Amino acid sequence: MASYKQMLAEAIQNKNYKLTARQFFERLQTDSMLRRTPRANRSGSGRSIDDFKSVLSSGYGGVARLARYEIELTPGRAFPDALKGPQRNIQLQCNTVAMPGVDLQTQSVQYGSAPVKDMVTSHAYEGTITTSFYLDASLDTKRFFEIWQDTAVNPITHKARYYDDYVGVMKIFQLGGEGGWRTYGMEVSEVYPKTIGQIEYAYESTDTIALLPIEFNYKKWKTIPSNKLYG
Q: What's the rounded Cα separation, in Å, for the pair 10 and 2?
């Protein structure tokens, strides 16, 4: 079968300008030479599926998968030391976590009759961190976050405590590779559980594990250097 280039040359030679897009596309799909040759980009280098796979696999651990993550939680200094024992188990019970973002604050500026442009004036950290945790039958995870909130507000006098007493640290890690090594880390500072969500019970949910939604407030975050992911 003639290639699409030969087909196009014959059409021009015979002044057959009625070649439809459908015919051209069908011939294009059957052209084995074209399928083997990747289309060149503007720089002249070819790109193919194999190139794409090679780029992704060249990084440490391959592609980032949403199910491969880890968190570390450190409550504020007012949190009772005697209750920090189950902390590791609670971290393992983290079902979902949203890695926060950051955005640049801008202001519109115009000089004379020139077009308006947005200039960066500051930066801001995005919203809150939403998480959910699997619950054990005794609801120890829920108790853990309730105690953390009690370090912010006295449950008896209802008076707020000092800010530095209840803010802690959260670390979020991306895992990769066969061994689940940490490939990226984020340290979120001045964290505290702003909202302990409700638990929805239902008789028909016989095989469903209970989840506890937690919403964290924070001040800022920074990327953890690669040499300190385990430090």
A: 10
The pLDDT value recorded for residue 24 is 52
pLDDT tens for 42-69 read: 555 556 777 776 766 666 567 888 999 9
Distances (CA, A) of 157 to 42, 147, 181: 69, 15, 46
Side chain identity at 162, as an amino acid letter?
Y
φ, ψ of residue 185 in degrees (nearest 5): -145, 150
Run of H or E residues at 58: helix 49-58
> Domain containing 145 — which CATH number?
2.30.110
Q: Among the listed ranges 24-28, 116-120, 127-131, 150-154, which one has the minimum average pLDDT value? A: 24-28
Q: Is residue 96 very low, low, confident or very high in pLDDT (cuts 50, 70, 90)?
A: very high
Tokens 């006295």 sit at which residue? Answer: 154
**Host domain of residue 201:** 69-101+127-228
Integer Cα distance of 73 and 157 in angstroms: 27
**Within a 13 Å sphere around the CA of 167, how many CA atoms are in the beta-carbon half?**
11
In this structure, the number of other CB atoms found within 10 A of the CB of residue 97 comes to: 18
pTM: 0.73
Cα(69)–Cα(181) distance, integer angstroms: 10
Strand, coil or helix: 91: helix
Residues 41 and 91 occupy one common structural domain: no
Residue 127 zone, left/alpha/beta (φ > 0; ψ -120 to 50; rest):
left
What b/e string do you get for 149-160 counting C-beta neighbours within 10 Å, with b at 16 or more?
Answer: ebbbeeeeeeee
Token output for 28: 């294009």
When computed from its CA atoms, the radius of gyration of the chain, rounded to whole angstroms, is: 28
